[in-house]
């Protein structure tokens, strides 16, 4: 039971960090990033590959964040001058490109065999069977740090400019703000945060392979952000806890319904879909979002 | 003119076959209010878009306080102190009135990504000063009690006022007002006129597009009439307005009516 709780904390915590990066881009800057998982993959693989080559984790994790941030900025510079929906198309394409590169660059990534046996932080300090408990602590600390950083930024003048770009870019520009630069900054920072979540995921799984980073992961993050309320960091964390809580508790119930595992998995997604539809109808701002700040429609 | 703040020389802009602005030249002296009138579709708002850098002219020069600004990005022109408002009020609906106002302030340290964290104290102090200024300007426009409301909940007239107030937060040297009285009730408009006059007295230069001729006459030191993208008449407002060509432009060429 304890193992079970720890695993929920780990997955919910890691995905909360991941979704917070998306909330910065969508909830604050109004950017449609449909390829968020690519940056998680970049973070995970960069950290793992560097650490397997004797680079200490204290450098390998930030390296993944910097690389993902640079990729995010590059995508932004390439597409943000176009209409906003183009970003959605380009990012979803990018995330598949990243996954296929990881699958096929076998000499580096061992392709679909994946990578394992890589170093994890503070591993030698604690017996193997207690490691997840320690990692859960690390994830919670990282989550709180990311949350604090984003809360300070969201309430700062920087966050104010971001919100003005989301609301009406022309107004922002007419008041002397370089809207383009702010969009690129939020893409880069959100991508770096996704990479941090990717490193944590690699530590937790002990084995990564390109199929951990399917497009569905991006949409889990979207569900968390929308469930919790776009533009609310607290809501995003609550959304992550609720979604993983739902996934894990329904696993308990599987014994009581006569469905095959794949059918019950599909049923779970159907229920989530229905919950989201009901949410959009009755509480479109999500659990913690503000109705006046609703990011869909104007 | 020695103290002109804006000069436009032979500016042209076409959209497909339509010449929206055609060889337009004008000059705005410092500390004056210059009115710009003309029939619908005359190119007034397009001219504002050209001046503020939102669209680029096909030809011509635009000189703001001695510098050529054609080709500069719009945010940079705004940063030089040339602030425009929009014809349809564009409040940032999902932000509060105070947030709208504070956004207007220029060169904020806290707008740099890391500053709110590494220069926390200074950003806090800067925010307090900006908030104080925002409250003063809101008071000037009788909007202070709406401070914490979302701008989306304001009436059309209030949004127009907020837009003007927000533009003032930027300490503009030249303010372009696009139909500031549209949708504002007459009583409020009268008060707005007094406020705009006060702003001129305090040293601001204003260029104003407006359809309501009485308001334009009450405010303008100089008046330009735009028709089919070209300057039709200019000069002292009451003389310009009694020009028969202006009358014809409004009522259509060939009209027998006389003013």
Please give the alpha-carbon distance between the first and last residues of chain A.
46 Å
By CATH reckoning, the class of the largest domain in chain B would read: Alpha Beta
Indicate the radius of gyration of chain A in whole angstroms. 19 Å
Percent of residues in β-strands of chain B: 15-25%
Structural class category of chain B: alpha/beta
Average pLDDT of chain A, rounded to a whole number, is: 89
Could you give me the name of the CATH homologous superfamily of the largest domain in chain B?
P-loop containing nucleotide triphosphate hydrolases
Largest interface: A-B, 30 and 43 residues
Strand order of the largest sheet of chain B: 6-7-8-3-9-10
Number of helices of chain A: 12
Strand residue content of chain A:
under 5%
Structural class of chain A: mainly alpha
Share of residues in helices of chain A: over 70%
3D architecture notes:
The complex is a heterodimer of chains A (298) and B (259). With 298 residues, chain A is mainly alpha-helical. Chain A has one domain. In chain A, helix 1 packs across helix 10. In chain A, strands 1-2 form a two-stranded antiparallel sheet. The radius of gyration of chain A is 19 Å and the shape is globular. The N and C termini of chain A lie far apart (46 Å). Chain B has 259 residues and is an alpha/beta fold. Chain B folds into two domains: 184 residues, Rossmann fold; 60 residues, no CATH class. Chain B has ten helices and ten strands. Chain B has a six-stranded mixed beta sheet with strand order 6-7-8-3-9-10, sandwiched between helices. In chain B, strands 2-1-4-5 form a four-stranded antiparallel beta sheet, covered by helices on one side. In chain B, helix 7 links the parallel strand 7 and strand 8. In chain B, helix 3 runs parallel beside helix 6 and helix 5 packs across helix 6. The radius of gyration of chain B is 19 Å and the shape is globular. In chain B, 44% of the residues are buried. The interface between A and B is large, with 30 and 43 residues.
């Amino acid at each position: 039971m304890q193992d079970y709780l720890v695993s929920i904390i780990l997955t919910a915590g890691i995905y909360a960090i991941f979704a917070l990066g998306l909330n910065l881009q969508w909830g604050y800057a109004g950017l449609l990033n449909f390829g968020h998982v690519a940056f998680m993959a970049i973070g995970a693989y960069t950290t793992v590959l560097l650490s397997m080559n004797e680079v200490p984790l204290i450098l390998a994790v930030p390296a993944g964040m910097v690389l993902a941030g640079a990729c995010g900025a590059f995508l932004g510079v390439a597409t943000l001058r176009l209409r906003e929906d183009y970003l959605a198309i380009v990012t979803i394409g990018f995330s598949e490109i990243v996954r296929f590169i990881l699958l096929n660059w076998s000499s580096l990534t061992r392709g679909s065999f994946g990578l394992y046996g890589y170093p994890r932080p503070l591993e030698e300090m604690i017996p193997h069977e207690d490691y997840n408990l320690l990692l859960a602590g690390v994830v919670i600390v990282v989550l709180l740090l990311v949350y604090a950083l984003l809360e300070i930024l969201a309430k700062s003048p920087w966050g104010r400019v971001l919100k003005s770009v989301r609301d009406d870019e022309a107004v922002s520009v007419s008041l002397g703000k370089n809207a383009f630069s702010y969009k690129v900054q939020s893409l880069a920072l959100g991508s770096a945060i996704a990479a941090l979540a990717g490193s944590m995921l690699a530590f937790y799984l002990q084995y990564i392979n390109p199929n951990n980073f399917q497009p569905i992961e991006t949409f889990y993050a979207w569900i968390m952000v929308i469930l919790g309320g776009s533009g609310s960091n607290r809501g995003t964390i609550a959304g992550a806890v609720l979604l993983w809580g739902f996934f894990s508790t329904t696993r308990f119930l599987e014994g009581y319904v006569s469905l095959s595992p794949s059918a019950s998995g599909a049923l779970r997604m159907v229920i989530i879909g229905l919950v989201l539809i009901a949410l959009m109808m009755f509480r479109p701002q999500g659990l913690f979002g503000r109705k006046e700040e609703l990011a869909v429609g104007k | 003119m020695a103290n002109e703040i804006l000069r436009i020389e032979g500016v042209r802009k076409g959209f497909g076959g339509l010449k929206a602005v055609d060889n337009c030249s004008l000059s705005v002296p410092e500390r004056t209010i210059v009115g710009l009138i003309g029939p619908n579709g005359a190119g007034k708002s397009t001219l504002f878009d050209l001046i503020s850098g939102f669209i680029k002219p096909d030809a011509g020069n635009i000189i703001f306080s001695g510098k050529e600004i054609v080709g500069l990005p719009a945010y940079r022109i705004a940063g030089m102190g040339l602030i425009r408002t929009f014809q349809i009020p564009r409040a940032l609906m999902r932000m509060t009135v105070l947030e709208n106002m504070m956004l207007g302030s220029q060169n904020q340290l806290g707008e740099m990504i890391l500053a709110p964290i590494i220069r926390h104290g200074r950003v806090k102090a800067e925010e307090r000063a900006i908030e104080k200024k925002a409250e003063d300007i809101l008071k000037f426009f009788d909007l202070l009690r709406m401070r914490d409301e979302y701008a989306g909940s304001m009436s059309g007239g209030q949004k127009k006022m907020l837009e003007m107030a927000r533009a003032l937060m930027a300490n503009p040297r030249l303010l372009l007002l696009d139909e500031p009285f549209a949708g504002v009730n007459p009583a409020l408009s009268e008060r707005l006129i007094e406020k705009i006059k006060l702003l001129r007295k305090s040293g601001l230069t204003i260029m104003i597009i407006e359809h309501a001729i009485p308001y334009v006459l009450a405010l303008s030191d100089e008046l330009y009439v735009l028709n089919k993208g070209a300057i039709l008449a200019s000069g002292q407002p009451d003389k310009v307005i009694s020009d028969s060509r202006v009358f014809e432009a409004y009522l259509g060429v060939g009209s027998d009516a006389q003013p």
